[in-house]
What we know:
The protein contains seven helices and six strands, in the order ββαααβαβαβααβ. It has helices at about 35-50, 60-65, 80-90, 115-120, 140-150, 170-190, 200-210; strands at about 1-10, 20-30, 100-105, 130-135, 160-165, 215-220. Helix 4 crosses helix 5 (about 140-150).
Amino acid sequence: MDLLYFDESGDDGLRPGSSRFLVLTSIRIAAEEWIRWNETILALRKELDVSLGIPLHHELHTRNLLLRKACFADLKLGRSSMIGLIEKIGALTDDEGISIRSIAIDKRPGIRPLNIALIAQLNGPFGRCVSISDRGRVPRMRKLISTAFRDGTIAAAPPEFMLEIDSRDSSLVQLADFFATAAYLRACVETKTPTHGRMNQEEVLAMARITEGANRTYHLVRP
């Protein structure tokens, strides 16, 4: 049995002010490996607490981290320190026991971006899994998956369960948030879409680079 952690970046709306992209990232690990991964991420957080002053108890909310806002506003993280952090997290996920997939949807009128991203995430040679995501997303995702499976657009078996968890309580949901943000920034780089004006472009490029690797894949869908 696998554990499948989901997180998004952007939104699936088309109104003025909505994001250009919706990114859905999944992190898949074997259930029996959960303790090892939780301890590995905890060890990295302890290292970042000592080396960069990022408190262990703070949720690693990636957008706030890159913008140096909210709980990260007073840390005075320089460009080289931030790029080092990004590369450490990228290296952490070179382990063969983890799979990270990011699907970026370039939204257009008449499409259902979350539905497209979910189908892309779940159609693959995977075994049974339990899905876990941040609060508020799961009921809608559960409904979309049920409909897609009934219609035959998802060939693989759907998750056994879909569980909600507060992202503050899950290091793996926070890791999914990190890679979802990285994939969103890569989509911006590839399409020459401006990122937030306060984001350092070298850091943006460092984030884009970690979306692919030994066990990481990224795909931009332009319906």
